[in-house]
Amino acid sequence: MIPPLSLCGASMALSSHTHSFSVLSVSKTAENGNGRRRGRMVVKMAASTSEMAAAFEEGQLERPKWSGKTPLSRLVGALIAFKPLSSVLKLGARQVLIRTAEKGDIPWREMTKEILESDVYKELESIQNPSLVYPDYYLNPFHAYDEGNLSWLAAAEAEPATMSMVRRAIPNASTVDEANQVVRGNWLQAIEQHHLQYSRTTIIRDILDIGCSVGVSTRFLADKFTSANVTGLDLSPYFLSVAQYKEKKKGPRKNPIKWMHANAEDTGFAPQSFDLVSISYVFHECPERAIINILKEAFKLLRPGGTIVVSDQSPKSKIVQEMSPVLFTLLKSTEPFLDEYHLTDLEGRMKGVGFINIQTGLTDPRHRTLTATVPC
Question: 3-class SS at 112?
Answer without folding.
Answer: helix
